[in-house]
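idk why but the lab printer keeps eating my pages so im just putting this in chat instead. protein + coenzyme A:
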Amino acid sequence: MADKLVVAECGVIAEADCQDADCSPPMQDWLTEYNRRLRPAHDALDAVRSDQRVYVHMGAAAPLALLDALCGHAARLRNVEVLHCITIGPAPYTDAGYAESFRHNALFVSANTRNAVQEGRADFIPVFLHEIEDLFTSGVLPLDVALIQCAPPDRHGWMSLGTGVDISLTAARAARTLIVEVNPEMPRTCGDSMLHVSEAAFIVEASHPLPVFDQGEVTDVHRAIARHVSALIPDRATLQIGVGGIPEAVLASLKDHKGLGIHTEMFSDGLIPLIECGAVDNAHKTLHPHKVVTSFVLGTKTVYDYIHDNPVFEFLPNRYTNSPQVIAQNDRMVAVNAALEVDLSGQVCSDSIGPVPFSGVGGQADFIRGAAHSKGGVPVIALPSTAKGGKLSRIVPTLKPGAGVVTSRADVHWVATEFGAVNLHGRNVRQRAEALISIAHPDFRTELEQIGATLFVR
Ligand code: COA
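predcted complex ->
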């Protein structure tokens, strides 16, 4: 992953590298700019003041050295809002001991911030992923400081946002002060993935591996769901698939498909074998043919290495990748997203367990709507029929009080469990209840019919 122009340990781009490359005068200019902006992490974080809003780069790109340094300023800071969509790796600003200094505001609740949100030490904003950037640029959520992690600059002074363009490119440019952590372990990615050295107020060098995302176990239930979902996916489909056991199992079941393409908000390890075996060739995509369109990557070092300098990938911001109007321009768009609970009328809860925030809205509704409007599109919600070791049905007469509806019952189409897949679109509420009961776990069907009869099944 080492670049031609790696940043030397001393903090100055190595002379020898500069001589090896074609150093035109503009390059010398950016080298000067780069070195002028270099700071130790603690000094760079002097820029943060009490009562400010600080954006943190999303996903695997959370700038760990800058976050440590931010916490090093806790004693002088009060009421700093730390805002991000999802990060993996440590989130030290959520520690209870920093409660007076920092309060996290989650655009998506991730595993590393869930306790803080659920214990009331952090907050949650329900929002469509494709609309978040507008919050930064419209003045609804103005950003004081953005903490971003990039790969080292290329010979023109451009630093790649690596694993995440998502909402972070816009955040970096919307923030009044941009602080960039330059990490040689960050892959350099193609697409709208570059920030120029001159855009940063301060640059901090750090070298550390990117955190790895735990995909969870793929179970027999996930594989059974995947069999029903893959039967809905035609050859030459364009896919959006998230992370977790169900998406991994669906991807593993698609190796015999032909001519598939990818347009997704998130890319992970499970898609690599499909590209390598030729099932995904992107050749038949009606938008961005021959390219994998994505906005961020979560996974292991394997996928982080795979995207490095790989021109098949087009990393683009979420306001584009997740716009339902853009998604719909892909014919045969298949969106597969998971859920926590579905009620008998088809309302899909995916972001909370009752009133308790669990994850977020993310791109689910964006892709379900985009796929619904695509020619030959297939929007799918997939979930195991039960939770808690089979004790709870996830097909329920009514959602738990306080549950968040991510996909509305007017948006929902296919719902799949390990017992089959049913299409609710255009069906009345009584027909939906009957269809959903047919794919509920058999242990709960009688109870669902009895309660459902008092609600919908007349
Ligand atoms: N009642 C109570 N608890 C429930 C439950 C229910 N109806 N359904 C699930 N749970 C529990 C599970 O038991 C599990 O608990 P555990 O971690 O203690 O075992 C936990 O909630 C997570 O359930 P699981 O089915 O394993 O979730 P997942 O990891 O497959 O994620 C979503 C599912 C819905 C949370 C996830 O897909 C998501 O966040 N979606 C919204 C955003 C989105 O779809 N974006 C687009 C794709 S990137």
